Amino acid sequence: MHPSLPAPASNLSHWHRTTRSFPHLNANRFAEVPASTKYLVIGSGITGAATAWELINSGVAGEDVLILEAREAVSGATGQNAGHVRPDAFRGFPRFSAIHGPEQAKLILENEKLHLQSVKDFVETHNIKCDFNYTTTIEVCMTEEYASHLAKVLSQYRKAGGDVSHIKFYQGDEAKAKTKVPAAISAYEWPAASNHPGKLTQWVLSDVISKGGKLWTHCPATKISKHRGTDGARWDIQTPRGIIAAETIIHCTNAYAGYLLPEISGVVTPRRAQAHAYVPPASLSGESALKSTLSLRYGPTNFFSVNQLKDGTVIMGGQAVRSDAERTPEYLEGRVSFDDTTHNPQITKNSIEEFSRLSSSPSNGPARPGEGFSHVWTGIVGETPDAVPFVGPLPGLDGQWICAGYNGHGMARIFQCAPGLVKLITGSSWAATGLPACFQFSKERLDRISRLKAKV
Ligand SMILES: Cc1cc2nc3c(=O)[nH]c(=O)nc-3n(C[C@H](O)[C@H](O)[C@H](O)COP(=O)(O)OP(=O)(O)OC[C@H]3O[C@@H](n4cnc5c(N)ncnc54)[C@H](O)[C@@H]3O)c2cc1C
């Protein structure tokens, strides 16, 4: 599929609809771009915002940092996700092991645990009002087959020396009672959080701007070429409102990275994900509101995430099917796409049915006007063939860096990846980032990916 710039008229998520008065939403919408900057960050999602923030808080002058955003601020996946900050506690171990070996697989999972603490510390230290809810998450096994698969995975992870001390296990009636899901076969619980990703990222952008950083919205970077001259700049970045000369470029464009970097087009690929918001009936309201987030899982990549916000709204991400027969062409329509202007009605139908099962109870009485399904939206996730992000310098492109490709799991990784990348940019070694070695961008990794793709 050809790489693409973000579609101009992307749909508004629940998070967008509840933050329309963000003062920097359309910052510098009609202004010509500055002629030069030392650091150019492309993308205003959580990766771009956190990278700019880390640069400034590592000693770079705010005035030397410029963020370019193709649409309004935080209009990509960060503003369109399901609000979960949910470390993978052990589920991904076999897949990561098969691709990167068991030691890297353990480091990937341990890094996600650290990440949860990093987000919590960041939000608490800066007293950020982003509806942060530090709680637990419960992985609910919805089929016997998946329950038995996951039991094996936990045992495999434990045998490999993985830390499982923070994971609680429930089975049968106990699992049903704990999760309030009548079909639960078994369940695993561990610490996680949910938040309003729009409010969190807007706070970070506001702080960057208050420290002198600049944000240009509705201003896509359309081409990068070598800068000619002796003024210290290395690259010229074209935009519809002028050319910027920059010393350093940081690509925080996630699914769209291949547009400016043909060398990774086809390596970071788009997947459209969909989420829905619901106003709960009595069974999930008041003191019956969910205390933990849930993942209702029918298979390793076949799930609905459930995240009840502090105001009671239930956000359901994921797009599960309950049997292979439901994997119809209509259901698969739009899955590999850059189009976040629309959604898939078949997935909405599945989601509404799942919400109805989750919330059905004799205590509900007749549905009240205003209850139930309230909104649907989509966003574009950046996938990589080896299931982990790209972090680091771009070989052969002196002064260009990347942090992208979180495989739909960025809110559980970026507060480790972005600070790690800034350490590299400011001269530290890879070891100082604390990131698993398999996240590092390199020519060798691209070659390994080509071999992996050839095998599939
Ligand atoms: C429906 C959905 C549900 C999800 N649920 C979860 C979840 O519950 N938990 C979780 O961990 N993750 C989830 N994710 C994934 C998560 O949202 C992403 O991993 C994360 O937001 C990526 O952040 P980012 O800043 O790298 O990318 P983005 O937020 O996509 O930011 C990239 C930005 O770059 C801009 N851009 C692109 N190209 C250019 C260009 N050439 N010039 C200028 N600007 C450009 C885009 O407009 C965009 O704003 C979900 C994603 C979706 C879509």
TrEMBL record:
Residues 39-412 form the FAD dependent oxidoreductase domain. InterPro entries: FAD-dep_OxRdtase, FAD/NAD-bd_sf. Gene3D superfamilies: D-Amino Acid Oxidase, subunit A, domain 2, FAD/NAD(P)-binding domain. It comes from the Eukaryota. GO terms for cellular component: cytoplasm. This is FAD dependent oxidoreductase domain-containing protein.
